[in-house]
Amino acid sequence: MQVVPYMIAAICVGVLVSAQPPLNAILSRALGSAYAATTISILVALVFSLVALAIAGTGASSVAALIQVPWWVYLAGVVGAVFVGAGVVIAPVTGALLFFVCILTGQLLGAMIMDHFGAFGLIVREVSVPRLAGFGLVLAGALMVQHG
């Protein structure tokens, strides 16, 4: 399987995601509430997802399959709401670049910890000096962006 087209697609999604916090901040100012803006944003995402589901098909979706999934897997939806809400509140203060550099730093820290312990069925990839050095470079980049 060619990975490069998926990498390009991920970069394109990243560009789209970078517009989400400032757009939601505009909505928040119009509504006078970060929570209302978050709710509307997630409601629009739900409608879009339902349309995509109707077009693409449901796959093996069933109540039985949903019941078999551990309850804590559904917390991914909470994570999505926290991300959208945080973007509404934080990005207008920090700017989009610093917000996303900090988000990326946190994601990399979380990913490194999850890899190290093999969380959620991931293959164990222990923390190493090169991995810590790479993370340190990202952290340094976050500090450079903040002071730049």
Describe the structure.
There is one protein chain. This protein has 6 helices and no strands. It is globular, with a radius of gyration of 18 Å. 80% of the residues lie in helices and 0% in strands. It is mainly α and 148 residues long. It has helices spanning 4-31, 34-56, 63-68, 75-94, 96-117, 129-147. The chain has one domain.
- What distance lies between the first and last C-alpha atoms, to the nearest angstrom? 40 Å
What is the average of the pLDDT values? 92
Q: Given the helix and strand composition, which structural class is it?
A: mainly alpha
Using only CA atoms, what is the Rg? 18 Å
Number of domains: 1
Query: Low-confidence parts lasting 5 or more residues at pLDDT below 50?
Result: none
Task: Give the overall shape.
Answer: globular
List the helices and strands and how they pair.
Layout lengths: L3 H28 L2 H23 L6 H6 L6 H20 L1 H22 L11 H19 L1
How is this structure best summarized?
This protein has six helices and no strands. By secondary structure, the chain is mainly alpha-helical. The termini are far apart.
Write out key terms for the chains shown:
6 helices, mainly alpha, 148 residues, 0% strand, single chain
